[in-house]
Structure formats: structure tokens, C-alpha cells
Amino acid sequence: MARSLGRIFRGFQSLGSLAFMKSELNNPSANLSLKSMVQELPSLFSSNPRDFSLPNSSWGTEMRQLYEHYNSQCEAVTDGGEEQGGLWKRLPSYNRSLKYAAAGVYLSKIIQSKARLFTRNIREPGAAFEYAVFVNKKEQRCVCIFQAGHLLEGPPGNVHGGAIATMIDTVTGTHACVHSGFVMTANLNINYCSPIPLGSTVLIESSVDKKEGRKTYISCKVTSTDGTKLHTEATALFVSVSVSHLLKG
Amino acid sequence: MARSLGRIFRGFQSLGSLAFMKSELNNPSANLSLKSMVQELPSLFSSNPRDFSLPNSSWGTEMRQLYEHYNSQCEAVTDGGEEQGGLWKRLPSYNRSLKYAAAGVYLSKIIQSKARLFTRNIREPGAAFEYAVFVNKKEQRCVCIFQAGHLLEGPPGNVHGGAIATMIDTVTGTHACVHSGFVMTANLNINYCSPIPLGSTVLIESSVDKKEGRKTYISCKVTSTDGTKLHTEATALFVSVSVSHLLKG
């Protein structure tokens, strides 16, 4: 029970959006428990949450160009709510997803009310994780454009290995969730090849290797924006979980 | 060159202290390049940096008790600067170690001046990573007491997998540095077993598995404070690097 409780909400934290999940209801591959749970959920979000994956003044030229590159290929939504065309879909990102979920354990009211998603816990634009995730379902690929802020330092002048692991967990977890519904991370295996200087922009690309029963295997590379330099490579294993009982705490 | 530049300062970031390195000069196993480099370093630190590994008002009962448990077994330093007795040694932790090091790449002056260690980038006590690392050289063990703040959320109510990876990288990197001098992380392989609720205190224990040439292998477990519940287990590989040329940029 405890094992299944914790990481099950990766979909919420990574995709960050009940709206996204509702759009998933039109996806035949979305599993039934996800569908029923979302349909039964009360309104758990504040009325106008900030989408942190939109461009802001801290974004450098590379971030803006890459954003435009992928965003221009994204599907459009008509006034009637229908999705039309586009190879890619940008996923919104909030700093808290299910603010009343207690994950089945006792948490103080203070912690519950103040908790924020780790990758979005600093509001100063450009100081920490600036990123946007795009998914290409046909090719079973995800691309994340990531600009590393000055508060992510590990080795002087470069990004901390834990911050890189955090982004890999976020991107592969998002991808696994898009592919397989709710999942929890079972393993991350990360090879660090070359450092990422603070302030730079990199690409994080993931692909689905295989799905075996409840297991989804994802691989991931972090490269320079032109793809010529490999910074980090990783594999990740996610396990699908049933979630309908989790919101009952 | 680039590969060796980035993660080489793990010693600085993890141990966080030139003072610690100077104490290492009395250690016959410290390599010559480290010794000469430290002796040649100018004063790179502010006069009274805050040691973040000391107890503060946010620490809960478990953190305080564990801190006292290990701290009471720590070696004492005489007025003459000599170390006496004690199984354990507490390692200080700062939010920036070498603030003028450029890691061989161009960084803007703004980024250089504002950069902060990822695990110490939030000054609000208790909000993020609260931890203290103790090392036991005789037993080749490290123990880290870690209290997870509300800004580390991943799955609602629980710590983000990337935040757990960050602590594992920090503790194993510190341990490898104590054991082998300057190192860079080459691999982290992490198995997530059960979630860590926000606000809780856990133990992170590492041990040296073997050293083969430039490679140091460390294993690590994250458990409940009584050791009965396994949250995460990991292996880490670090590679020793020569550092004397790095400060030249």
C-alpha cells in the first residue's frame, strides 16, 4: 500500500493539469480507472493557476527559438474544444497539482497548504528550472527545452547532478504517464558525461523503449541544443498503478 | 577537458569548506595536487559564511535527537587545532564554495555572483533540504540526517524523486571525496522503493564498496530513522580527477 501511494501522482505533478487529464479522456488508450477518477474528482485547483511552461522575460534566445520551433508545430484547439492537427502538444506545468491530496499519510495542515512542486518552488523567473515539455504521441517522443538557472549550482559554474536527475525524472515520468497512464518511478539509471554550465539551455529528449505488462521503459538524453554534445544519458523504469483508491487517503 | 571540468568540484560543493580541505592536508592519503592547489588558493570565501548543517528552529524532534546522537560522538578540536578522539566528524555545509571559479567556461558576472548550491538555495529554514552529514573514516561510512521540507514535493504529500536523487548524489559524492580526494560523478543508479512524506526525517547511509584505480564505488540506502523501512537504495560511481589546472579556467 505504502509503496503504491507515493509516486502515483506523477501524472499530476509532471503533467500538472487536471485540464490535461480531462483532454486525455478522449484518448482511447487512457485506462478506465483514470477516466473514472478524473470524472469523479471535485475541483481541486485554484481558478487561475500560473502555467510555468510559458515563455517569460528570463528566457534567452535559444529557449525562445526552441519554444517557437516546437510550439509552431503544436496542435490547435478550436473554439469548440476539438484538437486539430499538429505533431506536438505542449504540456502545461503548475507548482501544485492536487493541493488537498494527502497521499494516504498524515501531513500537517501547514505542510499541505505550503507544499509546492520541487521543480517549480522558486517563483523568480530564470533563477532555477525554466522548462517546457512537448510530447509527440505518434513518434512516442518527448522533448523538453530546459534553461538552467543560477540557483541550481553543483560544481562551481555548473548544474548540480541532482538537478539534472530531477529534470530527467520529470521528463521521463511525464512521458511514461502520457504513454501508460498513472505510473510511479521504480528506477533511474543516469550516466553523467559532460557538465552543463549554469545559464545554458539544453534539450532533454525521451523515447519509449518498451512496455511489458505494468512496466514502461523510457530512455533519455540530455544534449546541447544542436545535439552535438552529450551531457547526460539515462534509462528509467516506471510501473503502472491503480489510483482510484488513492484520493480516499 | 570539458568532461573533467564540470563535476570536479564536488568536494567543494559537498564538503563545502576550504577549512575542511585544509584539515585534509594532514591526511597522508590526500593527493599532492589537492594539497598544492589548496595551499595556493587565495581567500575565496566570505569571512563568516553560514554553516547550513547546524540545527535551526525548523528541525523536528527526530532531527535534533539524531544530530545529538552523532554529534556527541564527534571528534573534538583542541585550542591548538589538533583533533582528538571521536568516531564521527560532522561536515559543514555552505551555499557557495568557490564563488569565483568559472569552471573553465564563460559565465556572466551576474550568474557568477548569484549562483548558489542547489541543496542550499532556499534560505527559509525548514522549507527545503535540511541535512547534516557525518563521516566515519574508520568504518568507511557516512550518515546523513535529512528532514524534507514542503518545497520538495513530487507526488502530492511526498518528496520528489529528483530531490531524493539530489540528496543521494550529495551524500555519496561527499563520501567519495572524503575517501578518494576530488571526484566527479559518473553514474547514479537509484531504486525507489517507498515514498518519503514531506516533513519527515530519514537517514541516508553510504558505504564504500571498492576502489579500483580512479574509480570509487559507493552504495547508499535511504531508510526511516529506525532503519526498519527502506525508502530508496542506490549505487554511485565516482571518478577521481586531477584538479590543479581547473582553477586556471
Compile the SSE list and pairings.
Two copies of one chain form a homodimer.
Chain A: H1 2-6, H2 10-15, H3 18-24, H4 32-40, H5 61-71, E1 76-77, E2 83-84, E3 89-91, H6 109-114, E4 129-136, E5 141-148, H7 161-180, E6 183-192, E7 201-212, E8 215-224, E9 230-240
Antiparallel strand pairs in A: 1-2, 3-4, 4-5, 5-7, 6-9, 7-8, 8-9
Helix pairs in contact in A: 3-4
In this structure, how is the largest beta sheet of chain A organized?
7 strands, antiparallel
Q: Percent of residues of chain A in beta strands?
A: 25-35%
Helix content of chain A: 25-40%
Instruction: Give the end-to-end Cα distance of chain A, rounded to a whole number of Å.
Output: 11 Å
> Based on DSSP secondary structure assignment, what is the total number of beta strands of chain A?
9
Give the oligomeric state. homodimer
Mean pLDDT of chain A: 79
Return the string of H and E elements of chain A: HHHHHEEEHEEHEEEE
